[in-house]
Amino acid sequence: MTMETAAMPSGEPGPPPITLMALFLKFLRFGVLAFGGPVAQIAMLRQALVEEERWIGKARFNRLLAVLQVLPGPEAHELCVHLGMIARGRIGGLLAGLGFMLPGLALTLLAGWLYVGFVVGDAHLAGALLGVQVVVLAVIGRAVVRIGQHIVENWLLGVIALASLAATLVDVPFWIPLVTGGLAYALSHRPAATALILVVALALAAAIHLFAVPTVGPRAATGASVTSLALFSAGLKGGMLTFGGAYTAIPYVRADTVGRGWIGDATFLDGIALAGVLPAPLVIFATFVGYVVGGLAGALAITAGMFLPAFAFSLILFERLEAIVENPALHRVLEGIAAAVVGIIAGTFLHLGYATWVRVPAPAAGTALFAVALAAAWRITGAWVTPAILAAGAVAGWALFS
Residues near 47 by Cβ (< 8 Å), separated by ≥ 6? Predict the structure, then answer.
């Protein structure tokens, strides 16, 4: 039987012959074991397929990972697609990606069904859920700092991140700081061009602020109709703009769901908490949001949008990605965009923090719970930390807020 495989560089190790079904089942198993977020997931793949089975060499694996880290999409999932391509070509990449995401997808759909049918409106669980929402903010806050430490490497990127934060807090559409940050950093050696970019961005932001309806924040429009196409678009936006890790999808999905009045910030945070304990890429929180907003069809639509870029970049463009990423001009654009994303996430964290704060019946207790969770997230590492923090938050919330 002929097995299509991706071309291997001369002298590189390669995967053993494997059937498509065996390939799918291998990555399905990885999906079942994918606890602990992207770092733990990538470590699992490295141990199994690089250290033990030698599908590719260590140096090539590191180069591949470097390319994925500057592209949008969940890195661990994209890595599975690439490794599946190495074994059996594009159909192998598709099956590997599907296998890795299906366990988390199935569990999230089940959790969404249970949440809608049995959790929402249960007064006995309200305090526990509020506690979880408080500690999720601590996890997100720590993630913002971690992402920023890797991305904001000089004062100019810091200025871009702070300007993006300020723009987010005053409801400037996300694409303005993204485009401005990328172009300003790429053209920073040309002061006149940079000044012109900033003037145009400020003019656009002022015009939109004066004449358009905000899409996120306390003045967000409500009552917009929910459609599968709109949910697919929300997921696609998140999937296309996840520079720097899965947490960067949060502001875009929130803008298109919370910002349209389809879901509240409390339920949105419940979805992020759920994604933190399931064996899945963190962006699976979008599936939960889609289920709560639009049922099974909505969940599948937003999931398709979220994961489509991860499949597309890998399956269609991988042969060209390394050459593209090596372009210095594009690299600076991506660095500027990534810095702007840090500011957008930080602004979204503050929006979510305010929305949670006004619902906490005991502010002093809520502040103490947040501080303890933040200290734990900051100082303790391990795949078990986030689930433990969430479980502790639920217990503390039930005791403090019920």
Answer: none
pLDDT in tens, 36-94: 677 678 888 988 999 899 998 887 787 777 677 667 778 888 889 989 988 998 899 99
Q: What angle do CA 231, 237, 240 make, to 5 degrees?
A: 140
Q: Please state which of the ranges 151-155, 281-285, 333-337 shows the lowest mean pLDDT.
A: 333-337
**Pair of tokens at residue 221:** 């429009």
* Block residue for tokens 């702007």: 340
CA distances from 347 to 169, 171, 219, 352 (A): 6, 10, 15, 9
Q: What is the DSSP string of 264-276?
A: -HHHHHHHHHHHT
326, exposed or middle or buried, with CB in 10 Å at 0-12, 13-18, 19+?
Answer: exposed
Residue 309 CB neighbours (<10 A): 22
Residues 6+ apart with CB under 8 A from 338: 70, 151, 243, 244
Give the 3-state secondary structure of residue 12. Answer: coil
Per the structure block, which two tokens stand in for 91? 């159909």
Burial 123-137 (b: 16+ CB within 10 A, else e): eebbbbbbbbbbbbb
Instruction: State how far the Cα of 77 lies from the Cα of 195, in Å rounded to an integer.
Output: 39
Residue 306 to residue 291: CA distance in whole angstroms:
14
Instruction: Quickly list H helices, 174-284.
Output: 175-186, 191-211, 228-240, 250-257, 265-275
Output Rg (C-alpha) for the chain, integer angstroms: 21
293-296 long-range contacts, CB within 8 A, separation 24+: 293/226, 293/231, 293/257, 293/262, 293/263, 294/226, 294/227, 294/228, 294/231, 296/109
Compute the residue count for the chain: 402
CA dist 212 to 52, 104, 110, 325, Å?
A: 56, 38, 38, 36
Q: Which contacts qualify for 267-273: CB closer than 8 Å, 24 or more apart?
A: 267/120, 267/292, 268/352, 269/132, 269/133, 269/136, 269/137, 269/352, 269/356, 270/115, 270/129, 270/132, 270/133, 272/136, 272/140, 273/132, 273/133, 273/135, 273/136, 273/390
